[in-house]
Amino acid sequence: MPDSLTVGPTADPRRVRAQDGRLLSVPDGWALLPPGDAGLTRRVKAAGPSWTVVEKVGRKLFSRGVWAPEAHIVHARAALEDERATPAYAKKLAQGRERRAKEQAEYEVDFANAVLRFLAFSPAWLPHAKRLAVLVAGHATPVGSGTVARTERIPIERRAEAAVIAWMRHQTTGYDHMRIERVKGARREVRRELAEVSRAILDLHRRDSPHAPPACPLCSALLRPPPTRPSDS
User: Fold this and answer.
1) How many Å apart are CA 215 and CA 200, to the nearest integer?
2) In this entry, which stretches build a coiled coil (predicted)?
3) Using a CB cutoff of 8 Å and minimum separation of 24, what contacts does 129-133 make?
4) What's the pTM value of the predicted model, to 2 decimals?
5) Are 7 and 58 spatial neighbours (Cβ–Cβ below 8 Å)?
6) Of 45, 68, 83, 219, which has fewest CB within 10 angstroms of its CB?
7) Cα 216–229–58 angle (5° rounding)?
8) What residue segments make up the domains of the chain, in order of their start?
9) % of the chain beyond a pLDDT of 90
C-alpha cells in the first residue's frame, strides 16, 4: 500500500504503525531517509509515495525520517548535490544568510524597544531600563533559543513582558535553586507568585522615589556580568 502516509515507529525497524492503528510493513525496495536535510526530504516526497515517520515524546513530535523508494532517494540526492555544487547555489546561500542576519538584527532592536515600552521606568531609572532591555533581548531573541520571544503567536508587547518576567525569575529570585514539589500545577503556582514579586520590583523603578540599589534585587542583578544558562521562558 504505497500511499503517502504519516506513521509511527515500532520496535521492528521495517514495520510502522498507521494513524488508524494498523501495522504496516515497509515495501520492498524502500529505504529510510534520515531527518536533517529539508531540501532533500521535500524532493523525495514530491517524487512519489512516501511514509513520514513521526514519534510523539511527551507533548512534542519528532521526525524519525521518511520511508520512500530507494531509487527516488538516490536520484533526488544526486540531483541536489549537483545543484548545491554550483556558484549560483553558493550565492543564494550567502544572500539567505545576509537576509536572515539583517532580519535578526532588526528584530533584536524592535524587541529591545518593546521591552523598554513595557518597563516604562522613570527618568531616574532610565539607564537601568536600557541595560535591562539589552540583557533581556540578548537572552531571549537568538534563533533557536526556545524562549517566548521567538514565537509569533502573541504580539511583541506580550512577548517582551513575558521575557522580562522570565529573566527576572532567574536573575532576581531563588527560582533556579528551589525544590518544587512534583505535583501538577506546583511549578506554575511558584512562577505566578514570583511574577507578582517581579512586577512589584519593576513598579519601584517606575517612580522617581529613590531606593537603595544594594538592597534591590534588580539593581544588583544588573551589576552582575551576563550569565550563561539554558533558555527557559
Assistant:
1) 14
2) 180-207
3) 129/205, 131/222, 132/164, 132/167, 132/218, 132/222
4) 0.69
5) no
6) 83
7) 120
8) 5-85, 104-223
9) 77
Residue with cell 524597544: 113
Scanning the structure block, which residue is given the C-alpha cell 515495501?
27
The C-alpha cell that represents 128 in the structure block: 537601568
Amino acid at residue number 41: T
pLDDT in tens, 95-153: 999 999 999 999 999 999 999 999 999 999 999 999 999 999 988 888 877 788 788 88
pLDDT digits (tens, 9 = 90+) for 66-106: 999 999 999 999 999 999 999 999 999 999 999 999 999 99
| DSSP conformation class of 205 | T
Residue showing cell 511549578: 187
Give, in order, the Cα–Cα distances in Å from 138 to each of 195, 199, 212.
Answer: 21, 21, 27
The residue with cell 512516501 is 50
